[in-house]
What we know:
The structure is a single chain. The chain has a domain at about 75-190: Cytochrome c-like domain (Cytochrome Bc1 Complex, Chain D, domain 2). It has helices at about 5-20, 75-80, 95-110, 110-115, 125-130, 140-145, 145-155, 170-185, 195-200; strands at about 80, 85, 155-160, 160. Helix 3 packs across helix 8 (about 170-185). The chain contains nine helices and four strands, in the order ααββαααααββαα. The structure holds heme C. The site of heme C (HEC) has 21 residues, from helix 4 and helix 7.
Amino acid sequence: MKFLNLKSILPFSALLVLSGCLSPSRDTPPLQIWDDMKAQPKYKSQQQSPLFGDKRSSRRPPEGTLAIGQLAGDDAYRWGVVNSQYVGKLQEPITPELLAHGQLKYNTYCAPCHSRVGDGKGIVGIRAGAAFQPANLLEPRVQQMNDGELYSVASEGRRTMMGYRTQSTDHDRWAIVAYLRALHRANSGTKDDVPENLRAQLN
Ligand code: HEC
């Protein structure tokens, strides 16, 4: 039996390689001689599997376990709402660390629209025009909202504002609410709030 020599299979293999790029038009997928790894045995969602007694290919996590980071607090912590009422109080102890974290997250997520001081004059509103005006977070109406409501607006959004639940953690948003209260307080500050030894430096 005569073996094929290299010379005779070269044009043939070149054709095969080229055929990988072949397709009748730009809108149709290229011809596939071998499917490489494009098609491989795998389970799609809701498919059956003969491997398990209950025939489900999608397995439940072992009883009593949670994926890392999925531990949800109670309703008050997670949603800021209990029995259809916004919770009145911040769901975390107020510490200097919490405020610092809130400042970081507020400046990241909220300041582009509401500005660093909270007056609503962030860069987005300036550029967006009349159709999209972020609220002034220092106005009495917002100051009078309780902590759960502020947390809920930050999480779920309101009217034209989108929510930030997916971009931030529950802890981030409670910290933001704590920091918002600091902005409220700063906005109503007077000279008397400045320590006496520093008052001389005020203009
Ligand atoms: C992309 C811009 C944008 C960002 C970022 C943004 N907001 Fe807003 N926010 C708005 C707009 C616009 C409104 C006014 C919504 C309306 O009345 O239609 C608003 C309104 C609000 C209100 C008032 C709701 C009311 O009942 O009137 C609060 C409180 C608020 N935002 C908090 C936050 C906090 C906290 C963050 C950060 C987690 C944040 N916002 C981030 C655009 C933004």
